[in-house]
Specification:
The chain is of the alpha/beta class and 227 residues long. The chain has eight helices and six strands; from the N terminus they run ααββααβαβαββαα. The protein is globular and about 45 Å long. The two termini are 33 Å apart.
């Protein structure tokens, strides 16, 4: 077993945040009508993807009836529909959809993780919960040694990356970068951080995030990786 696999197992067994443990387990018990036939995962979501990835995506947290149901990041919800379609378009995934852990999806040169590994009520995390989960992201950053581009999906994901690089004393920026769609900053001489609005329904249904806008982030990531 690799060190990354050991970390994934450690994440799955985590119970540091009582509020999140209670919520994710309650959702897994009660379910919703259209998923009554599912056996919900109901545990933290580990990171997922290529251990030699040059592209790292950092989101917010699993969705209550998405990742908390399926056990895979961005799987089984509308955000994932957007994300994997786009990753497939740019060659980072072998198929354009992700519906379960056993659907044959593999990521190419890409790894997906999150600020927090448990589904939070109303998609709102407490600062203490972000702090409790940060060691896992720090460990991933240390283990994913080939990463050259990081995409922060949403402000929380973007800020988590900035704070981790600051904590690891890797960051070379003098002024802390501020999140925005299309924002680009050099975290180190080797690693670039890109900002993107999160592909949540709140953003995609209202037009705040369009497919063209989302594509532009991954087109830019490809250009950077091709240098």
């Amino acid at each position: 077993m690799t060190r990354l696999q050991e970390l994934q197992r450690e994440i799955i067994a985590c119970s540091k945040c009582p509020r999140l443990v209670s919520w994710r387990q309650r959702v897994a018990r009660e379910k919703i009508k259209r998923f009554q036939h599912w056996e919900y995962w109901g545990k933290p979501n580990p990171g997922f993807g290529d251990p030699r990835a040059q592209l790292l995506l950092v989101g917010l947290a699993p969705a209550a009836h998405g990742g908390n149901r399926t056990g895979r990041m961005f799987t089984g919800d509308r955000s994932g529909d957007w994300l994997y379609k786009t990753l497939h378009k740019f060659g980072f995934a072998n198929q354009p959809s992700s519906v379960s852990r056993n659907d044959g999806l593999t990521l190419n040169d890409c790894y997906i993780t999150a600020t927090c590994r448990c589904a939070p009520p109303q998609n709102k995390l407490k600062p203490s919960e972000i702090r409790n989960c940060r060691p896992y992201l720090l460990k991933e950053l240390n283990l994913l040694k080939d990463v050259r581009v990081i995409v922060g999906l949403g402000k929380v994901g973007f800020d988590s990356v900035v704070n981790c690089f600051h904590e690891l004393r890797w960051a070379s920026f003098e002024k802390k970068p501020h999140f925005g769609h299309g924002v680009e900053c050099m975290l180190t001489e080797r690693v670039t951080l890109l900002g993107s609005f999160h592909p949540s329904q709140q953003n995609t249904f209202t037009g705040r995030l369009t497919q063209r806008m989302f594509d532009s982030v991954f087109q830019h990531a490809k250009r950077i990786l091709s240098r």
